Amino acid sequence: MLDLVWLIPALPLAGFLCILLFGRKLGDPKAGYFATAMVAGSFIVTLGLFFDLLSKTAEERHHIKTLFQWVPLGSAHIDLAFLADPLSITMCLFVTGIGSLIHLYAVGYMHGDPRFSKFFLYLNLFAFSMLMLVLGSNMLVTFLGWEGVGTCSYFLISFWHEKDSAATAGKKAFVTNRVGDWGFMMAMFFAFWAVGSLDYSAINGAAASLSITTATAIALFAFIGACGKSAQLPLYLWLPDAMEGPTPVSALIHAATMVTAGVYLMCRISPILNVASSYAPTIIAIVGAATALYAACVAVAQNDIKKVLAYSTVSQLGYMFLAVGSGAYTAAIFHMVTHAFFKALLFLGAGSVIHGMHHEQDMRRMGALRKLMPITAATFIIGWLAIAGVPPFAGFWSKDDILLAAYDKNIVLWVVGLVTALLTAFYMTRQVIMVFYGEARWHDAHEEHGAAGDLGVSAHGDLTPHESPWMMVTPLVVLAGLSIVGGGLNLPFKESTERLALWLEPVVGVHTSTTAKLPLALVAIAIGLVGIAGAYAVYYFKKVKPVEPKILADAWGYDRAVSAFMGGPGRKAFDGVAWADAHIIDGAVNGSGELVRGTAGQVRKLQTGNVRNYAAAIGASVVLLLVWFVVIRGLL
Amino acid sequence: MIEFPILTMLVLVPVIGSVLVALVSKRYPDLVKVTALVTSVLTAGMSIWLLAAFKTNNADFQFASQHEWIKAWGISWHLGVDGISIFLVVLTGVLFPLVIAGIDPHHDHKRYLSWMLLLEAGVMGSFISLDLFLFFVFFEIVLVPMYFLIGGWGYDNRVYAATKFFLFTMIGSAFMLVGIIATAVLAKADNGHVTFDLIKIAENASFAAGTGRWLFFAFAIAFAVKVPLFPLHTWLPDAHTQAPTGGSVILAGVLLKMGTYGLLRFGVFLFPEAAVWARPLFLTLAVIGIIWGAIAATMQTDLKRLVAYSSVAHLGFIVLGTFALTATAITGGVMQMVNHGISTGALFILVGMIYDRRHTREISKLKGLQKVAPIFAAAFTVVMLSSIGVPGLNGFVGEFMVLIGSFGTARWWVVVATAGVILAALYLLWAYQRVFHGEPDEDNKSFAELKWKEGMLLLPFIGLIVFCGLYPKPMIDRIQPSVDKLLEHVAQHSDFKIPAPAEPVISNGGEG
């Protein structure tokens, strides 16, 4: 069974190829159902592999399936090979599981789009790339997937490419990711020259014998790559803009799967991280905590329903890196999984709202939607409780694991984590109230629309929000269920209930903590409730005036500063190079051309046709040459 | 039994084709085209046969043929292919019929095709000559048809560009001619007689360090102009922009490779000591070229100029790999020579198609083409991603091998060169956005979708882009033995030690 691991990425690839050839014929909605079936097929194969692995002892849960030699490098060679182990199969389970739900959802969401089948073409290619990323048995196959998901997200973000903002956002995502890829490539080069292989088993196996400098270099360069893909400071910039893509894309790529790739990579090379100099994990933890807090602050002041979730994703990814930096890899994976459940749920819920609101994304024009969209509202509320850290929902357990590890690492990190938790509860509550409670503000929007122009309003006349069709609602219900029970994967009561930790132990080791868990957990619950209560006071009861500083709405002005730099000095420098190329380098060329022409004009005058002049010149030259050879070179 | 002189035929058939085309009367335009096509397809067939018959895991020159030419000077008609040249020969063989069949020069087909075929003979000859003099003859022959192709079928500023191209390469070649003669004369002491034979000189001659370095530079300048290496690159954007599409494809596809190939064969192989000594200079210029070319490409307003500058950056990787002097890096460099030929050739074809439709290459005048021509845009996207170096497509393999191979011997250069990878995404995606994204305006609304014939022309390129990216092993297996041998030669004739990368650690995990 384990040899069938190649089937997991092969099915979406087959889907991609079929839609490439027959997509237009299949059309709307058949192409969508077909693509969904392919990813669902992968999910079933993954389940089979999962049970096969379960039936083996912990030591045997490591299987490599080599397809062919990809890039021979002298005596070493890099294979196109897959690694099936608890970590990769865990990743595959939620990538294919949530992936197929999102595919199904997209069938409803993209219905009627003129490029319907192309959307699923990209989605299947994305699923294929993501599975290559997590299944690769060496860094290069991972890199193939890594770049593949980057390319697909470029396609998908700029899917509605007629819109300038969408086209720009796609490009920005690709280029920013490439900055991170520089780090990934450097990590590969360091690893290859130190170990002579890019196989994870070889690299991790050699970790103990690596010099600390090398291990630190590999870890930190890989982290630069992770920062790009997983949207950490200072490279997170592309993710909020990526919300220009269709909402299923936001859910699939920018919440559940692609952005977790960086966390996955760090967990995959965790043995390297463990032997790296102690400042390496500390840097990772600090960047993670800083990103978590930074983005949570920004989310408080956003009015776009998707932007809130985007910044929330950046913030939650920060949590995961905080866990990685604290050495709690299981906690990072655990949060990755639960986050995939509830964040995909929230994004899809937001998409359902947007769909029902006829492409309105401004929360100030929503409100009181829970009666009109009961299922969306109910599931969204479950997602909210999960992310806000209310027990017994999934997010509580995983976040608690991270906070515990952060507490062990450094109390400041723990405090930052707590403040982030407070803000998370606050902004999510704010969102739920603005969208589903309060008074209905979409009538105003309707009237504005009506007032804006009488033309064509009748076509859109029915602006009353409506519940979404079944293929959109079903994924919501399933994900809501997972968001409720997801915490069961890893309950901290006793060792045997920490199932995920036991399962992942052969890959990432164990993180032991002696700190008493209960007091910390109680503090975290209290903090979460304070956040919720605070938001109720401000947005529901309107007892306190909302504080939404401009600087936060503007994301601390960082994006603007970077854009200003790129558009200003950066562009000037580039222009300078182009100018220098045209005027200095090429100028020298044309200048010497002119010089030759000018000199030639002068020299031509020497051609007097007078033999005596020539003879004199020849004579003088001979004398000079003789002098040169005799006096200076000392010949004769 | 006399063996079929396949290499000689590879040169002769295009020459015969060229003469035939020139002789056929203008009144039979179809006959002209058929003659050109048949001879170039014949050459392509022979080159593919050559590849099929080429022995893998054999580092020596294969299919060698040697006949005395000018006995008194030790000049001979000496041809041979090894792993370093075989794919360049095949690329040349395959590219020409595609260009001849697929790209219309718009006027005066007869002279155009005649020059094209002569060009093919010159390029072919350069890649298979094993005699310095013979190589020089072919290397110079190439200039003439290229000059006329740019000057005769190019765009507005073609005369300036053609002259610039000619003068630049001529000046470089003048140095090389001096170098070749000096090499042969100076090597007489070691050979016992004057000879221009590359292998004999390389194996027997022992130049004093100072002499060898002068000679090396005489050769290297000619090649550096051809590559082109920063700061000798400014002829390239002009030549590319003004050349007709077919000329640009050939120029980028194979002509530039004569420079990088020359650096390997007549630089590193002939003067190992000097090449080792000059490493820092060439590595630095290569890396500057990677960054400089990419930045300059970003700011171009003409689509064709942009692609031309991207060539400067891409060729920088090849030079980096060449002078890193590791087997992986040089093999990667050779891979990159071929892959750049495929992807940049295809890019020029696509830009040419845009020009044919819109009669402009100004990026600012193009907009929203993806909406009106999605298949055309898809083809452009695949080629663009290959040029960016996305893994799974051909552009990545060579670049990756160059970088990972150079990391051990030229670490800091690699750190900077890798940043070029970021810039490649920037200039191409930015250009793509401006040309293909957005709502098409009035001028671009009627942009025609990819036609069948155009699709057929692009199909082999796209097929190779995907195949070479996913399964480069057959290429690497044929290239690497010759590269290993070259490096042994370098290690014998200089104080350069072939760096041994770390031995692969045997993993404790089970192998499937």
In spatial order, strands of the major sheet of chain A run: 1-2
- Which series of helices and strands of chain A comes N to C? HEEHHHHHHHHHHHHHHHHHHHHHHH
The low-pLDDT segments of chain B are: 505-512
What multimeric state do the chains show? Answer: heterodimer
Order of helices and strands of chain B: HHEEHHHHHHHHHHHHHHHHHHHH
Strand content of chain A: under 5%
Indicate the radius of gyration of chain A in whole angstroms.
30 Å
SSE-based structural type of chain B: mainly alpha
User: In which order are the strands of the major sheet of chain B placed?
Assistant: 1-2
> Counting H and I runs of at least 4 residues, what is the number of helices of chain B?
22
Number of E strands of chain A? 2
How would you describe this structure to a colleague?
The complex is a heterodimer of chains A (636) and B (512). Chain A has helices at 7-54, 86-109, 116-135, 139-157, 164-195, 200-205, 212-229, 238-241, 247-256, 261-268, 270-275, 279-299, 305-325, 329-356, 374-388, 394-409, 411-436, 442-452, 470-485, 499-508, 517-540, 550-553, 558-606, 611-632, and strands spanning 63-73, 76-84. The longest helix of chain A is centred in the C-terminal third of the chain and has 49 residues, at 558-606. In chain A, 57% of the residues are buried. Chain A is 72% helix and 3% strand. Chain A is mainly α. Chain B is mostly helical. Chain B has a domain at 278-497. Chain B has helices spanning 6-23, 29-53, 83-102, 109-128, 132-141, 143-153, 158-186, 188-191, 198-204, 209-226, 235-242, 245-268, 272-277, 279-298, 303-324, 327-358, 369-372, 374-388, 394-406, 411-436, 452-470, 473-493, and strands at residues 62-70, 75-81. Chain B has a two-stranded antiparallel ribbon. Chain B is globular. Residues 505-512 of chain B have low confidence and may be disordered. Classes of the chains: A mainly alpha (636), B mainly alpha (512). At the A-B interface, strand 1, helix 4, helix 5, helix 6 and helix 23 of A face helix 7, helix 14, helix 19, helix 20 and helix 22 of B.
